[in-house]
Write a structure and sequence with these properties.
seven-stranded parallel beta sheet, six-stranded parallel beta sheet, 13 strands, Glycosyltransferase subfamily 4-like N-terminal domain-containing protein, glycosyltransferase activity
């Protein structure tokens, strides 16, 4: 932790508001949330974490170091009243808020009288959630139900006007905020690549990590597509290859497709043994938003990836430099076969991808972004005002997404 970050956080009281306590087994933004809390705490801020989904919040084995308080609630309590009570008790200088529906709750909980002093608000956009819904609508038209994509995006961005600072997970999504008149800084992920991982020799099979829930979830959709459309083509060229699935399995459609060549390992507390044995990581996701943490995690564990063009773009990567990509079944299968067979390609892609993770996801880069955010919100000028009492934006699919097991949904 840099001395500058510590100086910026010193004596600050920070309340972090997100869906769930970010346990290691949770994905969907949980690893990044945990990194934010840890960075603030190590810098000397007094951090309280407020989970809005009380009924489903894990109660034991808190993932934070000593010094971080978790504000537990009771099932059935009024969320807004509980949040108001927490704010009154902790008297935060800064609120870190993630996800649109939690921003709506903050707007409802804070006083709106002119001149009323309140905490500075940092809206942390680990994804622009409507982007996932819009892309999902391309595959499942009923999801959009006549909704206008531009309107959805404008509504989600409008929520953030109540914030003093907006943080975005990537430069491309930050540009979307800027296009709609909201300045945004970038705060990516924080992950250190493993220093010693097995090389290509002795590895075998393909690995997918992600929870498979209902049939329209991104992970279930992508696994079914890969098993039905891609893997038969792969097996025609690589008859001994198997597919390993890690993560909670709730989808009967996926369960029916398990066999001696498609194996589900369920929730896996430590993915490293699977990473070390697999030869290729597949990320066939067709609709998503933000930055795919599953790809970052696989890369940090020394496993190169074949992914869709969408995820390649979200990573800011180039085909044949950090990974191989395709979006059509036949092309995706060819990429899988090529990476599986070509040791030199495998090693080159892995080296380039790991170098990118070291550059973009380093602790130093992450802490600097946190330091800059704290310095910004400690400045005496705030643009926030009557926005706190602005019109409520309707909660829609995607805006209320919750964490999934890390071995299952990032």
């Amino acid at each position: 932790m840099s001395s500058q970050t510590a100086e910026d956080a010193a004596e600050l009281r920070v309340l972090v508001v997100d869906d769930r306590v970010p346990h290691p087994m949770l994905g969907a933004g949980s690893p990044r949330c945990r990194s934010i809390v840890e960075a603030l705490s190590k810098a000397g801020a007094a951090v309280t974490f407020f989970p809005t989904l009380v009924a489903n919040a894990p109660r034991a084995g808190l993932p934070f170091a000593d010094g971080v308080t978790v504000h537990e609630g009771l099932v059935g309590e009024n969320l807004i009243e509980r949040l108001r009570a927490c704010i009154a008790t902790t008297r935060p200088d800064v609120l870190f808020v993630s996800r649109p529906h939690n921003m709506q709750t903050i707007r409802a909980a804070l006083p709106t009288e002119p001149g009323t002093a309140g905490p500075r608000i940092v809206y942390d956009a680990e994804a622009i959630f409507c982007q996932r819904k819009i892309r999902k609508g391309q595959f499942y038209p009923q999801v959009m139900n006549g909704l206008d994509p531009d309107t959805l995006l404008a509504e989600e961005v409008a929520l953030t006007r109540a914030a003093d600072l907006v943080l975005s997970v990537s430069e491309s999504e930050a540009d979307l905020f800027r296009h709609h008149g909201v300045e945004a800084a970038v705060l990516g992920h924080c992950l250190r690549p493993r220093q010693r991982v097995p090389s290509v020799k002795g590895r075998a099979d393909f690995l997918f990590v992600g929870e498979r829930a209902d049939w329209t979830s991104p992970n279930t959709d992508s696994v079914l597509w890969f098993i039905d459309e891609v893997f038969p083509r792969v097996r025609a060229a690589l008859p001994d290859a198997r597919l390993h699935l890690a993560g909670h399995l709730a989808s009967e459609a996926v369960r029916r497709r398990l066999s001696d060549v498609v194996e589900s390992h369920g929730e896996v507390p430590d993915l490293r043994p699977l990473y070390d044995r697999a030869r290729v990581f597949v990320a066939p996701t067709q609709f998503a938003a933000g930055v795919p943490y599953k790809v970052i995690d696989a890369t940090a564990n020394g496993l190169p990836c074949v992914l869709t063009d969408l995820l390649l773009s979200q990573m800011g990567w180039t085909h044949e430099r950090e990974a191989l990509s395709a979006s059509e079944p036949d092309a995706f299968a060819r990429r899988c076969i090529r990476m599986y067979r070509d040791d030199r390609l495998w090693l080159g892609l892995r080296a380039a991808a790991v170098a990118d993770i070291e550059r973009t996801c380093s602790e130093e880069v992450f802490n600097l972004a946190i330091s800059n955010a704290l310095r910004e919100v400690r400045s005496p000028i705030s643009h926030r005002g009557s926005d706190l009492s602005g019109d409520r934006v309707e909660q829609r699919d995607g805006a209320g997404a919750t964490e999934r097991p890390l071995s299952s949904g990032h």
